[in-house]
Specification:
The chain has about 525 residues and is mainly beta. It has a domain of about 170 residues: Sandwich (Jelly Rolls). The chain contains 4 helices and 43 strands. The strands form 10 sheets. Strands 1, 4, 5, 36, 39, 40, 41 and 43 form an 8-stranded antiparallel beta sheet that branches. Strands 2-3-35-42-37-38 form a 6-stranded mixed beta sheet, with no helix packed on it. The protein has a 4-stranded antiparallel beta sheet with strand order 6-34-33-32. A hairpin with a 5-residue loop joins strand 9 and strand 10. The longest helix has 10 residues.
Length: about 525
């Protein structure tokens, strides 16, 4: 008697993001081994990331052979007008469509573009290691040095605008002191209520160095390389330890990249030497075995950290619900989905290639600007500056819960949302062999107005808008062959102007003899 075909369903493929940390066999099928140029969309599907489109028109001419735009900052004036400042080619620019070089102080020379820029009291301040701090007064395109009388501001690599002051740290040859300005006076670090805090006797790990600063829930957060120190009373800093004093310290976890620190509104994310961490969770778990939100890709991510030679940049977007962490040298960006955490406390993660941001920022109108080698771009649309890019999804090798049976794959039924104009390539392989069998499926759209359940209750426009987003539905059926104990499945598609996501993969297979 002929054996009946069994149906194996991968529901919401890649919903849990990439997992390259755990043993692949036995992993939940919602994990992926590859989810490149992907995001987890609002319906929990692996889908295509957006692309980027040019904003500036004269980037190539003003940036020359330099790396490109390495810093972007939006300045919001008190009157509501906005100015975008950017930096590259050892210059500072204003503008978006046209990059216009600002005027520097006489004799001032810029030798790097890794500025930390903040808006404070209607002025814009620029700090960078080895450079005297600069200020644009009320957005003026002629910059001046930050100076009070004969006193220059500390030449720090990190600056924070919070609690009515500027806070500066990471000065060359002094990485253990935090300086703060006089109240509402970002130019004065030497009089009034200005002051400094020496952490040499505070570091819980002995010798340490300050990397980044943040403000959260009334506290000053000092991120060092191997520890985090939390001060209370930052609204009124002084030598009075009864007011401005240590609230908490975390030993063994610090920050290794200044621009990885992002405030989400309720938490702070940062890159440590053991992965991407949540400040709130770190505080809660400091006496317990710690978790990190990059747990499922930790070894891969830390390898990129160790080999990155340029500044690591990041951005958080509440609208896109992601935290991006980019490694320019490695041409890779990690995208952490911030909607909800997985049961183990980590966050779903995918990767992006070919965008290669040198800098990132989120604007007041929620747009995301990207600094690249030839100017400023916006994260938008589904092409990379009018060029296509490839989405790749592969599951982890799996035995579908039957470790000792051969699997004879017969047919794939796939549900794909969107991008009907481009073909999809199905990959399948057996027993860890990466020389995959492939079959290209021409894009054919179904009627997007037909409800999945085919009944009136679910066939209404509201249902379709909610669950399929008004996009084309593709339901290709592909006959396949071959057999093995372990199965790997992959889907690739060229993204060229339309969104694309993978809803479901049904596999019809025969279970063969026991091995």
């Amino acid at each position: 008697m002929a054996q009946k075909l069994q149906n194996i369903t991968i529901q919401a493929p890649g919903f849990a993001g990439i997992n390259t940390q755990d043993s692949p066999v036995g992993l939940d099928p919602s994990f992926a081994s590859v989810a490149n140029n992907c995001v987890i969309d609002q319906y929990g599907r692996v889908g295509a990331r957006k692309g980027y489109s040019a904003v500036s028109s004269n980037g190539s001419s003003v940036l020359g052979s330099s790396r490109g735009i390495e810093t972007i900052h939006e300045y919001l004036k008190n009157d509501g007008t906005k100015v975008v400042f950017s930096a590259g080619n050892n210059k500072i620019f204003t503008g978006t469509t046209t990059l216009a070089e600002v005027t520097l102080p006489v004799g001032y020379t810029i030798s790097a573009n890794n500025w930390k820029v903040v808006t404070f009291n209607n002025d814009v301040y620029f700090f960078q290691r080895g450079h005297n701090a600069l200020v644009s007064v009320a957005g003026n395109t002629t910059l001046i040095k930050v100076v009070d009388g004969s006193h220059l501001a500390p030449a720090g690599n990190e600056v924070l605008a919070a609690y009515g002051r500027l806070w500066v740290a990471d000065v060359t040859d002094n990485k253990h002191t935090v300086y703060w300005s006089d109240l509402l006076d970002g130019d004065d670090f030497h009089s009034g209520s200005a002051g400094s805090l020496n952490l040499r006797n505070v570091f819980p790990t002995g010798n340490d160095e300050i990397v980044a600063l943040a403000a959260h829930n009334g506290f000053l957060i000092i991120f060092c390389k191997r520890s985090v120190i939390v001060y209370e009373g930052a609204e009124t800093p002084s030598s009075d330890t009864a007011v401005f004093k240590i609230h908490d310290t975390i030993e063994g976890v610090g920050c290794v990249a200044r621009d990885s620190v992002q405030h989400t509104g309720t938490d702070i994310l940062f890159l440590s030497d053991s992965g991407v961490r949540s400040f709130g969770r770190t505080i809660q778990e400091k006496s317990m075995p710690m978790r990190d939100i990059s747990k499922n890709v930790r070894n891969d991510l830390l390898n990129y950290v160790s080999t990155e030679i340029h500044p690591i940049k990041s951005v958080y977007s509440a609208e896109e619900a992601f935290y991006l962490l980019t490694f320019p040298t490695n041409n890779l960006t990690y995208c952490f989905d911030m909607r909800t955490a997985l049961p183990d406390g980590s966050n779903r993660v995918t990767t992006w290639e070919h965008i290669t941001p040198l800098s990132l920022t989120r604007l007041d109108d929620n747009k995301i600007y990207i600094g690249k080698s030839d100017g400023i771009y916006q994260y938008a649309g589904y092409t990379d500056n009018n060029s296509s890019y490839t989405l790749s999804y592969f599951n982890n090798p799996t035995d579908f819960g039957n470790s000792n049976n051969l699997k004879f794959l017969k047919k794939f039924n796939i549900t794909i949302i969107g991008n009907a104009s481009s073909p999809t390539t199905l990959n399948w392989g057996y027993d860890y062999n990466t020389s995959y069998n492939t079959k290209t499926i021409a894009g054919v759209s179904s009627d997007a107005t037909v409800a999945e359940y085919g009944v009136a209750e679910y066939g209404i426009a509201q249902y379709n808008a909610q669950y399929i987003g008004g996009s084309d539905i593709q339901k290709p059926s592909v006959n396949v062959s071959g057999s093995g104990l372990i199965v790997t499945v992959g889907i690739e598609s060229v993204i060229s102007g339309s969104p694309y996501s993978i809803q479901k993969i049904d596999i019809q297979a025969l279970l063969g003899r026991l091995i």
